[in-house]
Amino acid sequence: MRIGFKLIAEAYSPTEIVAQAVKAEEAGFDFVEVSDHFHPWVSEHEHSGFAFSMLAAIAARTSRLELATGVTCPFIRYHPAIVAQAAATTALLSDGRFTLGVGAGERLNEHIVGQGWPAATTRHEMLREALEIIRLLWSGGYQSYDGKHLRLEDAKVFDLPDELPRIAIAAGGTEAARLAGELGDALFVTEPRPDLIDEFVKAGGSGPRYAEVPLAWAPSVDEAAESARRLFRFGVTGWPVQSELPNPVNFDAATELVTAEHMRDQFGCGPDVRRHLEVATQYADAGYDHLALINAGPDMDGFFDFFRSDLGPALRSADGQGN
């Protein structure tokens, strides 16, 4: 099992995100993944740096830490040709440590370019075409593509790594899980659902299975749960809501009645390693082998110390890797 750390780019400045990645490597994490958003989720968030710039800076300041987007929507706000170029460059700058995580996006980030927000079925069609374009450009040479939704005209990515980045596809349902198995190299989820792995494998998927694990470290359970409510309450709304609301003010309204107790039910809250291990084990038991730990608590340095001394060894011991 590989243990990673979720960089919450909406809650921290770009410079702090890079610093957290450096600390994650020092604490013993295997990888980091960073969200790729234009807008933050809720009003308490005050940041949303450009993911590929942060990844380049992280690559320059780390040596073994693997990097990933968690996740990029490769159409509407971006054209897939730009994503293909950005991912190839990031792979080169990181000496092959980069995984391109992609998904069908959220209105929150994509509506800003004024091209509307298609229905979910259309977005999955667009994601398929985007992936075909990215793979085409990564095959080398000048390429063109004429799809139902997306087009490419006489384009070439000149700087390609010898080993192309892995593509992990986010899935909140079975259709996306099948797409991940068909066109991706890995699966990416936010829920401990074994059925998504089943669909991924049935469609031909055999690669890594990434999952985000919701934790909040603090000296007390109450402090951790309240911090999780402030920073991550959008996460309890579910994917049908998360993908459809356009701005932080809408998420504030949608989460007005979310309490710290709601977060305590879903997150590993507080200082007890057993509770954090209980939450993480749900994902490992469901079959996920790349766990990206979220810390929605108020003290990031405290969390890194907790991971180094307690949680990391406990997770690796539970997985049979020892301390």
Automatic annotation (TrEMBL):
InterPro entries: F420-G6PD/mer (IPR050564), F420_G6P_DH-rel (IPR019945), Luciferase-like_dom (IPR011251), Luciferase-like_sf (IPR036661)
Domain (Luciferase-like): residue spans on this chain: 12-289
Keyword match Oxidoreductase: yes
Ranges annotated as spanning the membrane: none
GO molecular-function term, one example from the UniProt record: oxidoreductase activity, acting on paired donors, with incorporation or reduction of molecular oxygen
Gene3D superfamilies in the cross-refs: Luciferase-like domain
Keyword Oxidoreductase among record annotations: yes
Keywords attached to this entry: Oxidoreductase
Highest taxon above the source species: Bacteria
Coiled-coil regions listed: none
SUPFAM superfamilies referenced in this protein's UniProt entry, alphabetically: Bacterial luciferase-like
Official protein name in the record: G6PDH family F420-dependent oxidoreductase
